[in-house]
Amino acid sequence: MKIIKRLTDADIIGAGGMSGAKPRRTARAILKNNNGRYALVYSAGFNMYCFPGGGIEDNEDILTALKRELMEETGCSCDAVEELGIIEENRAHCDYTQISYYYVVSTHSVLLAPSFTNLERKNGTAVGWHTLEETVKLITRPQFDTAQKKFLQARDIAALNVYLARINASCDLLEKML
Hints:
Blueprint: E1 3-8, H1 9-12, E2 24-33, E3 38-43, E4 48-50, E5 53-55, H2 62-74, E6 80-91, E7 96-107, H3 118-122, E8 125-130, H4 132-140, H5 147-177
Parallel strand pairs: 1-6, 2-7
Antiparallel strand pairs: 2-5, 3-4, 3-8, 6-7
């Protein structure tokens, strides 16, 4: 999978330095249902929207983690999965690194209610389904004041930009064919 963005403290908070911490690995998705709506996970505790996904457990491959996380956070199965790209984060200010593997996923059914962790429930986590226009606004519009929120937002914006370029290219190609 191709690296689509590297985010550092210099990009997000204007500070130098690099962390040498072992990276946390995550699997994340731009998840679209058969009604053309996109899943976003909202955390009332953080007052922000993010694409669904989470940590890859020890001895778990990326796609298994992706399917597990999407089931836990949205109650949905993965019907079609395409690679989108990798986003690397290096947060020297808190000695943290993360590698996020992003996918574009289609789902045709909601199987179960989400099964959030106790911490996610405490933070008021919920999943919602939004139009593409709403998704773009909810991910890009807020201006956050903490480094953590700025990193989370920048990560999802980078993935969203690659996705939008991909679907716009597909639309352009389709228009040329008609």
